[in-house]
Amino acid sequence: MGARLAELDVTEPEGGAVVVSVNGEVDDSNAGQLMRAIAESVPASVGRLILDLSDTRYLDSSGVEVIFTLARDLQARRQALELVVPEQSGVRRVLELCDITSVAPVFATLTEAKGDGT
């Protein structure tokens, strides 16, 4: 059973936000590397990071820790973290159990997070 390592897709900053999408699985084997890659993708010029977990199929405790650490680090830089996790996703259930909303708002879609109104 080979785990599909997570891949990142980073958008150019737009509307004061950068969107980082995580596709695949996040576990102890790749969480540290993902943390560094995500942190490096957030320029000081943006006010928020939208972390899109719509295509994240698996997230263990290491992945949850990445999110909490990102939220804390961004807050120290006066930047916000927002999460996109579909309502029926297993990842969303894990994050809800870990009280992730105490550090970042969670949206069901990227459109909601961006506030496009569409």
Brief characterization of the structure:
Helices cover 33% and strands 25% of the residues.
Description:
The chain has 118 residues and is of the alpha/beta class. The chain has a single domain, classed as 2-Layer Sandwich (Transcription Regulator spoIIAA), CATH 3.30.750.24. 33% of the residues lie in helices and 25% in strands. The protein contains 4 helices and 6 strands; from the N terminus they run E-E-H-E-E-H-E-H-E-H. It has helices at residues 31-40, 61-76, 90-97, 110-114; strands at 7-10, 17-26, 48-52, 56-59, 80-84, 106-107. Strands 1, 2, 3, 4, 5 and 6 form a 6-stranded mixed beta sheet that branches. Helix 3 (90-97) links the parallel strand 5 and strand 6 (106-107). Helix 1 (31-40) packs parallel to helix 2 (61-76).
The total number of structural domains is 1
The count of β-strands is 6
Overall pLDDT level: 92
- Portion in strands: 25-35%
Determine the number of helices (DSSP H or I, runs of at least 4 residues).
4
The appropriate CATH architecture is 2-Layer Sandwich
Kindly report the oligomeric state of this protein.
single chain
Largest sheet: 6 strands, mixed
Helicity, as a percent range? 25-40%
**Name of the CATH class:** Alpha Beta
CATH level 3 topology: Transcription Regulator spoIIAA
Order of helices and strands: EEHEEHEHEH
Unreliable sequence segments: none
What structural class is derived from the secondary structure elements? Answer: alpha/beta
Instruction: Give the overall form.
Output: globular
Distance between the termini: 40 Å
